[in-house]
User: Fold this.
Amino acid sequence: MFSADLAIPALFVGVLAYLAGSVSAAILVCKAMGLNDPRTEGSGNPGATNVLRVGGKVPAALTLLGDALKGFLPVIVTAALIDHPPTVALAALAAFLGHLYPIFFDFRGGKGVATGFGALLGLNLTIGALALLTWLAMSLAFKRSSLAALLTFVLIPLYLLFDQQTTFAVAFVIIGAFIFYTHRSNIQRLINGTEPLIGKK
Assistant:
């Protein structure tokens, strides 16, 4: 998959994408808007959902946008510069892992849903849009954002395989596994029947 002449560019892409993913939109937005650090409030998770609890809709929307962009931009830039799907997939995976384990913030990141969606939109705009519609449909059906995300990230690799994008499908199997890991507390609450409905605390 990676020839010798692509090994160094791939390593360079992976490092830069990881650093981009490590920039925490939640922490920066809250700091810029004079809000408490989301790691010390609410669920303690530096993601858009917790920022919504801490500061309301505007900072949450900015956080969501920032988290999606740091998945989207490394992928779209890499794809424009390097015509090599494994390297582009590496950019998506590295940016996603940067969000989960940010080097700039003590490796305490968010759960990865927005960054995963952003990376997918960079890889394939049509399938990214389909995934977002899937998440929306699941959210409307089940009224639980976490369950909608989990089900959507199970389906994303299948969408990519159907479109014969095997390399990207493998990347999203890995991303999906991490999504399940970061949502383990949500999964336990879903099993217990205590996961809150969308819009409820």
User: Anything to note?
Assistant: The chain has a mean pLDDT of 92. The radius of gyration is 17 Å. Residues 4-192 form one domain. The first helix runs from residue 4 to 21.
